[in-house]
Amino acid sequence: MIIIIISFILLFFIWASADIRSGIYLRCICRGNRMEKAVALTFDDGPDPIHTPRILDILEENNIKATFFLIGSNIETYPELVKRIYDEGHIIGNHTFSHTPSYTLWSSKRIYEDIRKTNDIIYKITGKYPVFFRPPFGVTNPLIRRAVNNRFISIGWNIRSYDTLKFLKRNSISERIIRNIKSGDIVLLHDNREGSDILLESVIEGIKKKGIEIVPLNKLINKNAYEI
Ligand SMILES: [Zn+2]
């Protein structure tokens, strides 16, 4: 009996830290208003020199504004892509500088410095300090909460594409997204993966067919994307 109880407690703590929607350690916004027939698309882990430009072209062709949660080390390597994302009217969010799994074991001071460093680099390129933060891997814990709270708005998702899994066919990923999507949803995608352009095109087409509008994240959740 005691083993069963301990197993349940362990499972609870794993769920609390691994599922961004749990809100146990860090309150994350995972969706917008269900009353508006609109959703937001978010891209993590860029900028990427091959895939991000193609994603931006597709968004431009469809007159859609998305949100890019950028990794600081990639921003330093490809600042011109960050400028393009910003200049084309998309929102830039903070996805840490290092984006390493070990950050979950860092002190809250070190986590904060990693996030702050990323914001400073973004500011140098855009003149804006992002407010939206997305925890890498969707993992949260009390140290991350201490680093982030009252400084950033943490953004999760409620439609996970699983587009990082290579063995999943891009058309089956888009079919699942389109089947499940509802008003107010925040969709998690990546702009550093093979086939991300094909996936985006079919996701946009399917969402449009359902009569749902794709809007910028700040509009969907009614929050400022940058410090004012
Ligand atoms: Zn990530």
From TrEMBL:
This is Polysaccharide deacetylase family protein. It comes from Phocaeicola faecium. Residues 37-215 form the NodB homology domain. CDD domains: CE4_NodB_like_6s_7s. Transmembrane segments: none annotated. It comes from the Bacteria. It holds the Pfam family Polysacc_deac_1.
